[in-house]
């Protein structure tokens, strides 16, 4: 995802990938509404077709309706292998340079560049010198270790065992809490059954390798009374409730995204979605920095914006892990939460907004009186000179920004013209009772979040802050109706 975003912004990008071939293991399978919106803004959803939509999610195993206003309410079931292939093809099509079979071994950090050393196929060594390096290499990040970046937090104290298994026939289970533990099972159309199991009061083991299937089968039998050891495992792994976050997402010319920046139990697909949203926030900012046009401090807004989001997700996952893996002592809390979700619509919406990512609002504390500023551009129908349009279509700007003129302001269109190479201007009229309210204009960043609403002053300061130095005076119109 990050490689594609960097290429959209014009940055030359090399991806060093340890695996010689794509993995066949689809450990994650959920795309939440905000991620679907971001993928659609890059024109990527057509390739997915229409994946299954499951409106019912959960919070710590307590059922939760995730539907909120969005073109993609709920959660969408897409195997991780399919998501990875989609993003790989997109990034390569944009010109990213993917080097498979290259494992990072060493790095040197200078004031003006980073030099990485990787072991490639056949033992050949590869050196790559670049302006910046980004660690997207997971919770055991090699780049994080080489930088020496502090990664404070909590070690795992509990774990789930998980496997995809062929040749077994067990009842489907959705977070079934039994006397001895938690059991989850879901059989796919191809006959493969994913099973997960946790034994109450059992601690997390210190592992140097993935568990054997025999261990999972033994725990499954103790918890459920069922035998699955005759099945054929496709893969087996375990994951614990470790909870860590980098103190800083940026270390000079090195940045971190995804699980390299934060480690959390993968509950409800939040880890995968959090990482993809990190990448979309970082990509256009880093590309602007590399181009030499960025304003002072633009790149630092990546940490300023995404670290609080990550901290909040880690906190909600810690709460979910307690509800999900705790024994009988958590039942009163689960009962109370279920009552709040069922009887208090605002409680349901709060939890659904947090899990889906739809409630993210950057810099909310700096403009408490302007609910649009920092929020994502909401979906709404618009009326232009040549007919109807909607904000979903307008966000497909190939990684550029969007200035939406809602009052037919010629002076506004003149002001944005020096940034016309990186900001698309559209004149339209919103519905009077729509989510844009009485806003006369909105300036939208490449990640879909609103940077200026016209509430105070002109857009020039916001354009300079988020889109960099303006081009010399341009001739001709830059807007479309």
From TrEMBL:
Pfam families named in the record: FAD_binding_3, Rng_hyd_C
Compositionally biased region (Basic and acidic residues): 471-481
Ranges for domain FAD-binding: 1-314
Chain coiled-coil ranges: none
Positions of the UniProt region annotated as Disordered: 461-481
Keyword presence, Translocase: no
Cofactor or coenzyme needed: FAD
GO MF annotation terms: FAD binding; oxidoreductase activity, acting on paired donors, with incorporation or reduction of molecular oxygen, NAD(P)H as one donor, and incorporation of one atom of oxygen
Recorded superkingdom: Bacteria
Protein name: FAD-dependent monooxygenase
Organism per entry: Streptomyces alkaliterrae
């Amino acid at each position: 995802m990050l490689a594609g975003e960097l290429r959209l912004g014009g940055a030359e990008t090399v991806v060093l990938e340890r695996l010689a071939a794509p993995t066949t293991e689809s450990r994650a399978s959920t795309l939440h509404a905000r991620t679907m919106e971001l993928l659609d803004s890059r024109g990527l959803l057509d390739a997915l077709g229409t994946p299954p939509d499951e409106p019912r999610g959960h919070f710590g195993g307590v059922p939760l309706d995730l539907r909120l206003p969005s073109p993609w309410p709920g959660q969408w079931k897409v195997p991780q292998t399919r998501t990875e292939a989609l993003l790989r093809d997109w990034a390569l099509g944009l010109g990213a340079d993917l080097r498979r079979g290259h494992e990072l071994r060493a790095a040197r950090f200078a004031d003006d560049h980073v030099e990485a050393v990787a072991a490639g196929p056949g033992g050949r060594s590869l050196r790559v010198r670049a302006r910046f390096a980004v660690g997207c290499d997971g919770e055991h990040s090699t780049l994080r270790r080489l930088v020496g970046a502090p990664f404070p937090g909590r070690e795992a104290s509990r774990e789930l065992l998980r496997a995809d298994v062929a040749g077994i026939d067990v009842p489907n289970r959705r977070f079934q809490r039994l006397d001895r533990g938690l059991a989850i099972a879901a059989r796919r159309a191809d006959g493969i059954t994913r099973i997960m199991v946790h034994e109450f009061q059992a601690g997390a083991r210190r592992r140097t390798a993935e568990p054997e299937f025999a261990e999972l089968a033994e725990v499954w039998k103790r918890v459920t009374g069922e035998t699955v050891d005759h099945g054929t495992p496709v893969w087996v792994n375990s994951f614990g409730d470790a909870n860590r976050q980098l103190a800083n997402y940026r270390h000079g010319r090195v940045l971190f995204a995804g699980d390299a920046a934060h480690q959390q139990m993968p509950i409800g697909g939040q880890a995968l979605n959090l990482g993809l949203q990190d990448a979309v926030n970082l990509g256009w900012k880093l590309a602007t920095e590399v181009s030499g046009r960025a304003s002072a401090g633009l790149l630092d807004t990546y940490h300023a914006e995404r670290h609080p989001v990550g901290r909040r997700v880690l906190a909600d996952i810690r709460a979910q892990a307690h509800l999900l893996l705790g024994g009988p002592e958590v039942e009163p809390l689960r009962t109370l939460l279920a009552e709040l979700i069922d009887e208090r619509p605002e409680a349901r919406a709060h939890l659904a907004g947090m899990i889906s990512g739809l409630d993210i609002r950057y810099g909310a504390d700096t403009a408490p009186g302007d609910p649009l500023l920092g929020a994502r551009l909401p979906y709404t129908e618009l009326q232009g000179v040549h007919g109807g349009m909607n904000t979903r279509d307008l966000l497909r700007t190939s990684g550029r920004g969007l200035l939406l003129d809602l009052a037919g302001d010629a002076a506004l269109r003149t002001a944005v013209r020096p940034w016309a190479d990186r900001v698309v201007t559209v004149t339209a009229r919103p519905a009077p009772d729509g989510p844009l309210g009485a806003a006369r204009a909105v300036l939208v960043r490449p990640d879909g979040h609103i940077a200026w609403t016209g509430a105070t002053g002109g857009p020039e300061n916001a354009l300079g802050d988020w889109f960099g130095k303006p081009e010399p005076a341009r001739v001709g119109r830059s807007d479309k109706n």
